[in-house]
Design brief:
two-stranded antiparallel sheet; 21% strand; 285 residues; alpha/beta
């Protein structure tokens, strides 16, 4: 079962409290040895930018399957990577968590996406904010994901035909968009668009077109008390109608509010692990 492995030790940047999507402060763990080695901090190019990422590798010889995890909108995604990375490595998977521009270790590579959306909301109203969100997720941030994929598939410790994509929240949106662009072997969307689906017809149209064009089998999951279950239900149905392989899991409520339910996509790995890993192993043999 996939469970979070606690880490301890120093951090490349000074550790301190960060806030997850539910606003709860948490500590950022440092790059100390875990069950499957240290967190490795890497760089990769995205156009003219230099972005950062973290890699956790299984202790095995030769090339391994890999999962590229797209983080959500919270400013310091390391907290999610450190919960998930060692656990995927324990199951024999390379875990690569790229930081898109403006967030985490790539904070100096561009503005923070939520700041750009908030500014558009203030200056042009909610419709302008929604348009900005779609433009960034389908533009610069998708470019960063595809650049991360290009970097990952050239690593000697990765089997290039066995790279899956996954992500939570904004990262779930990125997962669906990326699966329509490159040949991932599987795609895992955890709570993508749960906070934005009802606010943007453009986003709904973009995601529907993307699942119909997906290269990869798709797995959608959410907790029952997430903000909105329509994205997973609608996208899974649309993918199946288009002849794609798609699975859907709605799990019992996680925590006591919508924010905690939304963060199930990374805090709840002990619950969704068996289903996700079976899907990955089945489609990335």
């Amino acid at each position: 079962m996939l469970v979070a492995v606690p880490l301890a030790g120093g951090c490349k940047s000074a550790p301190g409290p960060v806030r997850g999507d539910d606003g709860v402060p948490r500590e950022v763990a440092g790059p100390s040895p875990g069950a499957h080695g240290a967190r490795e901090i890497v760089t990769f190019p995205s156009g003219t930018l230099t972005l950062h990422g973290v890699v956790y590798r299984p202790k095995r010889e030769g090339a391994s399957p890999a999962v590229l995890w797209n983080h959500g909108s919270y400013k310091e995604p390391m907290v999610a990577f450190d919960e998930l990375g060692p656990a995927f490595a324990a199951h024999g998977w390379v875990f690569f968590g790229p930081f898109r521009r403006g967030q985490g270790l790539s904070a100096d590579a561009g503005p923070y996406i939520d700041d750009e959306i908030d500014r558009a909301n203030r200056e042009g109203g909610s419709d302008a904010g929604a348009r900005t969100m779609v433009r960034l997720l389908a533009g610069e941030h998708l470019d960063d994901q595809l650049a991360a994929y290009d970097w990952l598939r050239t690593r000697p410790f990765v089997a290039p035909s066995r790279i899956a994509v996954a992500g939570n929240s904004f990262g779930g949106i990125e997962t669906v968009l990326g699966a329509a662009r490159v040949p991932y072997c599987a795609a895992i969307d955890g709570a993508g668009a749960a906070q934005t689906w009802a606010k943007s017809a453009d986003l709904r149209d973009l995601l529907l077109r993307s699942v119909r064009a997906s290269w990869a089998p798709l797995f959608f999951f959410q907790a029952a008390n997430d903000f909105d279950l329509a994205p997973s239900n609608t996208l899974a149905a649309a993918a199946r109608d288009a002849g794609k392989l798609a699975e859907l899991r709605i799990y019992p409520p996680f925590g006591s509010n919508h924010g905690q339910g939304h963060n199930f996509a990374w805090h709840g790995s002990a619950v969704w692990a068996a289903d996700v890993l079976a899907f990955l192993d089945g489609h990335c043999p």
